[in-house]
Specification:
Helix content: 40-55%
Radius of gyration: 31 Å
Strand content: 15-25%
Number of helices: 20
Number of strands: 20
Length: about 675
């Protein structure tokens, strides 16, 4: 009989624990690269339909994976950054940013160089988020056991051989067990070096954007007049038509080599892996903001940016040498002479392609230079086409000024990036949009001939082409205006600051248009905050419960996360229902516990949980509380409590059906009133 009871208890225990979701399984190994260098390999197997997020996923979206290498000082150093396998890149319309995520599998690799030969193990702590219909914040500690390192062994083991040390799981933590299997170095992991389809699309996007930038540069006063002059030079100086075509072709290829070389130089200086990280660097964005403001002022006619004459004279002398080298220096002379027009466009393209990272600058310069080189080659092959070229005139200056307005608008995108990283809230969404409305509005007035700038000629009428562009810019300006009142402006997603980064995240005047409730910080109860949709919310369980006792209202316990997409969907699509919102504002006390709050707990409040995990952050505290009380670790998760903190409703998770959630909420409140 006791055996039967034990079996029943085991079955109930199994189902009782089934609610703890653990969609990611880890396996680790150590690959010995040399006597003192080891590669720590961490493989994640992810359940179907779940997504785990990259280390590089943009801010204001899902939480990135973060690695913390313990006790490095005096023991070992990291060689480069943690590499990861290819991720997918998909736009998230909830957070209005791109998500970089892994599906099914993910691999992370970090090379370390051991300096303490007595080191026996390396501990690595990882925090990560996985989402499906619910989001889970998880963490793990990996213990990599290292083989004995003898001080005299520095050169014993050749780099081509590796000791592979596989892992097993012990008590929820991953611990490596040392095995002495020596084998030749395996072929590089294809997934690590593969470029995901979305990233390839981004590179194509950079190429197309750069090609259009090159075409725009082609239509500036510095470059356009050079086309007939240069082509005529090749056709007249060459003995045969074929020679003229060949020389023009070499000239075009030289232009491409010069600009692609610039892209390669940028990539070499900053490194393929660091360009993406550099794009989020505050100083990088601030410097580019200043550069683009200077370029914009130059295009608008404040001054001209020119390189030193001595530099240009040296290049001109080399161009007189003739042959392939002479043609190459003629192309270099074009790049230098036209710098005042092409420099700002090249600078903008390099800044934007650095945000893509990898070979983005090389691809960008390939697209830009191809657009510049193409007409020189085509008109050399078909010189009769030059008769169809429009004559140089005031329209070239219009193109240059228009580029100046675009440079000015893009400058504030870089400033916005820096502001988002620093979280200074100086350039929130409304301010950013106001600046863009002013810039594009001024551009529209210029195109209509209502603004005259220094290099403009007197104008009695505007061309049909200029009128069409003016109408397009005016339409775009008008499109921006509703954004000041909370319109999503989905066309500009990724360019403007996110909706959540604004003075009024749910639109200007939103709180005054819904049912009554607290609408200002001054009217809030002690320790409360203005939550989503203007609802009064507490972010601490005990403080919220104390207030519920004071006002004798039930509690809606809301396990949520800042980076939980389905939590935002519930708030925007379900809580926004007029009847539900009225209940949340007037009939219940909302306690929202954020499981991904990365703020550190005071030292005296840090502790070791029942599962043996270190609880050092506010988010970890509420995650552990949810697991211990409800045996579940996913968000969103809702429970209705009485004023004493006892459950009076069956908990629910993600419930997108408004009527179903409304019924559940009302049932909980009616039980409280009985």
């Amino acid at each position: 009989m006791r055996k039967y009871f034990a079996l029943i208890a085991l079955i109930f225990g199994f189902f009782g624990n089934a609610q703890i979701l653990n969609p990611v399984q880890w396996k680790t190994k150590v690959v010995q690269k040399s006597a003192t260098e080891f590669e720590l390999v961490m493989d994640a197997t992810i359940e179907n339909e779940w997504h785990m997020y990259s280390q590089f996923t943009p801010e204001n979206g899902p939480l990135p994976t973060v690695f913390d290498y313990k006790n490095t000082k005096g023991n070992y150093s990291l060689v480069g950054k943690t590499k990861e396998s290819a991720y997918k890149k998909v736009y998230n319309d909830i957070f209005e940013v791109d998500e970089y995520y892994f599906a099914k599998t993910a691999q992370f690799k970090q090379i370390i160089k051991v300096t303490n030969t007595k080191l026996k193990e390396v501990k690595v702590y990882v925090e990560y988020q996985v989402c499906k219909e619910q989001c889970i914040q998880q963490d793990a500690t990996f213990t990599f056991k290292l083989p004995e390192i003898k001080p005299t062994d520095a050169e014993v083991l050749p780099v081509s051989d590796e000791n592979t040390i596989d892992s097993t799981s012990q008590n929820g933590n991953i611990v490596t067990d040392v095995t002495k299997e020596v084998k030749t170095e395996p072929v590089a992991d294809q997934s690590e070096n593969a470029t995901p389809k979305e990233e390839k699309k981004s590179l194509w996007g950079i190429f197309i954007l750069a090609f259009l930038g090159g075409f725009a540069a082609l239509l500036t006063p510095c470059v356009f007049p050079m086309i007939p002059m240069t082509v005529s030079f090749f056709t007249k100086q060459s003995k045969t038509k074929a020679a003229g075509i060949r020389n023009a072709f070499i000239y075009g290829i030289s232009i491409i080599i010069i600009y692609v070389g610039l892209g390669m130089l940028i990539t070499a200086l900053f490194g393929i892996d660091s360009l993406n990280a550099l794009s989020t660097n505050v100083w990088f964005n601030l410097i580019f903001f200043v550069i683009l403001i200077v370029f914009a002022a130059s295009f608008l006619g404040a001054f001209e940016i020119v390189l030193p004459n001595s530099f240009l004279n040296k290049i001109d002398k080399q161009a007189d040498r003739g042959g392939i080298i002479g043609i190459f220096f003629m192309a270099l002379a074009l790049a230098v002479v036209s710098f005042s027009c092409t420099g700002p466009i090249v600078g903008s393209l390099l800044g934007e392609s650095a945000r893509q990272g990898g070979i983005g600058p090389i691809v960008g310069m390939l697209g830009f230079s191809s657009a510049i080189a193409l007409p020189f080659m085509l008109f050399a092959m078909f010189p009769g086409w030059m008769n169809s070229l429009p004559k140089s005139g005031g329209w070239l200056n219009t193109v240059k000024v228009s580029l100046g307005f675009l440079e000015l608008a893009f400058a504030f995108k870089f400033l916005s990036n820096a502001d988002l990283v620093l979280q200074t809230h100086l350039l929130e969404r409304e301010v950013f949009l106001a600046i863009w409305i002013a810039v594009f509005g001024a551009w529209a007035l210029y195109l209509f001939g209502k603004l005259i700038l220094p290099h403009d000629s007197p104008m009695t009428h505007i061309s049909v082409g200029r009128l069409f562009i003016a109408l397009f810019v005016t339409t775009f300006t008008i499109y921006l205006i509703p954004g000041l009142w909370g319109a999503p402006l989905k066309i500009l997603s990724g360019f403007t600051p996110p909706m959540t980064y604004s003075e009024s995240p749910y639109g200007v005047g939103y709180q005054n248009t819904v049912s009554s409730g607290v609408s200002s910080e001054s009217a809030l109860p002690e320790n409360a905050h203005i939550g989503p949709l203007g609802i009064t919310a507490f972010h601490d369980y005990e403080e919220g419960l104390a207030y519920a006792k004071k006002v004798n209202k039930p509690v809606l316990l809301d396990f949520t996360g800042h980076a939980c997409a389905n939590c935002r969907k519930m708030e925007e699509n379900v809580w926004s229902d007029a009847e539900i919102l009225k209940i949340l504002k007037n009939e219940i006390v909302l306690i929202s516990l954020y499981g991904d709050d990365q703020r550190e707990l005071p030292k005296e409040e840090q502790y070791i949980s029942k599962s043996g995990s270190e609880v050092t952050t506010i988010g970890k505290k509420w995650r552990e509380y949810q697991i211990e009380r409800y045996n579940i670790n996913a968000q969103p998760y809702y429970v209705v409590l009485d004023a004493e903190g006892k459950d009076i409703s069956k908990p629910v998770g993600y419930t997108p059906d408004v009527e179903e959630y409304k019924t559940w909420l009302k049932e909980g409140i009616s039980k409280f009133k009985k």
